[in-house]
Write a structure and sequence with these properties.
The chain is about 70% helix and about 0% strand. With about 160 residues, it is mostly helical.
């Protein structure tokens, strides 16, 4: 085996020299390529930088900002049967028809739906609502429902 290597020693030295010269040639070619196309390389790098920067800015601008809001609300659950507070009804002079409108409001019906269910006009429902708001001293439907539940005019589980 050593004899074969000695025999091919000259051939191996020429092959090694040729490989080193090829590496030197490729390195010089690469340097020449870099030096000759230096401007284009810089422009390309700047373009890639601005492309990545643009993508980052677009993600920041167009990403919807989600905000979680936690609302705590008291939920009353009655274990016994609901008993209507007749005294409060008489004190506030709330009619049975107004109480009926208030109950349908608590069920989530719109004024038009309430009018259709009670077979009256929309203006009649609006009038009943306005009088209810005055008698309960509130400005909105949700406030009226909440106040009626506190005064025991509506069952706490309704709505």
């Amino acid at each position: 085996m050593l004899q074969k290597l000695k025999h091919h020693k000259e051939l191996l030295s020429y092959a090694l020299a040729m490989a080193l010269l090829m590496l030197l040639l490729r390195w010089l070619e690469f340097r020449f390529l870099i030096l000759e196309h230096q401007y284009e390389i810089y422009v390309g790098l700047i373009a890639v930088f601005f492309l990545l920067f643009g993508i980052w800015v677009a993600n920041k601008v167009t990403k919807p900002k989600e905000k979680t809001i936690i609302i705590e609300k008291e939920v009353r659950v009655s274990s016994e049967d609901f008993i209507l507070n007749e005294n409060e009804l008489q004190e506030r002079k709330i009619s049975k028809r107004e109480l009926e409108v208030l109950t349908l409001m608590a069920e989530g019906l719109s004024n038009q739906e309430i009018a259709e269910r009670l077979f009256v006009s929309l203006n009649t429902i609006k009038t009943h609502s306005a009088k209810l708001f005055e008698k309960l001293e509130v400005k909105r439907r949700t406030q009226a429902i909440e106040t009626a539940k506190k005064l025991l005019l509506l069952p706490p589980t309704l709505g």
